[in-house]
Amino acid sequence: MPHCQYRPQGRAPTVLETHVLKLRAFEIVLVLFYMEDLKRHILDSIQLSDYLKGNVADRLTDGTSKLKAGKKLELARAVLVAEGVINQAESDEIKSLVDYRNTIGHQIHHLTIDVGAYSALMRLTEENLEPVVAYDSKAAERACELHLTVIKRMVGCVFHAMPDTIPC
Taxonomically, which superkingdom (predicted)? Predict the structure, then answer.
């Protein structure tokens, strides 16, 4: 039996649906901001720390000439875990939120398909044909908390790593 919905206004979103979509858009922008800022801060801080310590080896490369940003962040997460700045659970949370950020960038339609007249187009699980909801309503909150926590810890680590004289 086809999925039926009574929609007197036609396929246009209802007022409630438009408000839900606006809220999601705002939360999606927050996730993008927090995760991009955290990624930039992590990579820049590790490079600054290496420079201040006089390390000649770049900890954000694996020997190849060009690394994709995702691989650099993976190496950076490993550095932060090794130095005790974050634990493995926080590293996994960073990876999870970066993957969610990638879903936002490449498959945003999966995050909004469950709202509106076209919700019948949602992906279904293979086991029991339940709808797969890709939208994470807590992602913005988790990204904000993780952003603040990691940056606060990293600021302390960079200042402890500073030598008495800065090399020029």
Answer: Bacteria
- CA torsion, points 115, 103, 125, 15, in degrees to nearest 10? 0
Whether the CB-CB separation of 112 and 21 falls below 8 Å is answered with: yes
Give the pair of three-digit tokens for residue 117: 């007249």
Name the stretches of the chain with pLDDT < 50: 1-2, 161-168
Cα end-to-end distance, the chain, whole Å: 73
Kindly list the domain boundaries of the chain, sorted by start residue.
15-160
pLDDT of residue 47: 85
Residue 95 and residue 35: Cα distance in Å, rounded?
10
pLDDT tens by residue, 66-77 = 667 678 899 999
Nearest to 28 by CA among 103, 118, 123: 103
Give which of 135, 147, 114 is closest to 26, Cα–Cα.
135
Separation between Cα atoms, residue 154 and residue 45, nearest integer Å:
7
